[in-house]
Write a structure and sequence with these properties.
Blueprint lengths: L10 H32 L2 H13 L2 H27 L8 E4 L7 H7 L2 E7 L6 E8 L5 E7 L9 H11 L1 H8 L1 H11 L1
Antiparallel strand pairs: 1-2, 2-3, 3-4
Helix pairs in contact: 1-2, 1-3, 2-3, 5-6, 5-7, 6-7
Keywords: Coiled coil
Protein name: HNH endonuclease
Length: 189
Amino acid sequence: MPEEPIRGPSPEVMRLRRELSAAREHAAQQEVRLAEAEIAYRATNDGAAEGMREIELADRTQRRRLLRWQVAAEQVSSDEYRQQEHAGGARQGPVRGLPAGDNEALTPLLIGHHICGWERTHPVTGKQQVGLLQLTADGKRERRHTTNTLAHRCESVADVVALFATAHPDRLVEFAGAKLAAELAAVCR
């Protein structure tokens, strides 16, 4: 019995291979664009704050990708600071998103009410700007920022809330509303 000649892939299979290759290329380009956009946004105050919260809430697989973006964004922010400083002086340092902190009573309130924070420390003056961001249920964003006047640095959102609760209680009420501000202030003490 004669053997059948080996044939190459059918025209249909070849077409599908080309489509798959084109789709993979398009997906790779979109992934690069997404990463660039994520990094650019995370180099802003809002983006750094939201990004850190996203990292805190992410599963192990997501966390790696988010950490890469956050580190890259901090580098972008540092580069921007250096450019501003070279061009005549920067008013504030590079941005860094802050973790919620280890206050077991405060952290659930921060996460539950979508409150996150950022800081910028000027490398020369040491002056620390800190801010809070709340993403409200209706899609609005509440923001407050101030200069840290305390003897210690704010290293977490809990520290920033404590700063507002002690140094600017009226601004904490404006930011979070009277009821939530009272809850936040009570657990900071």
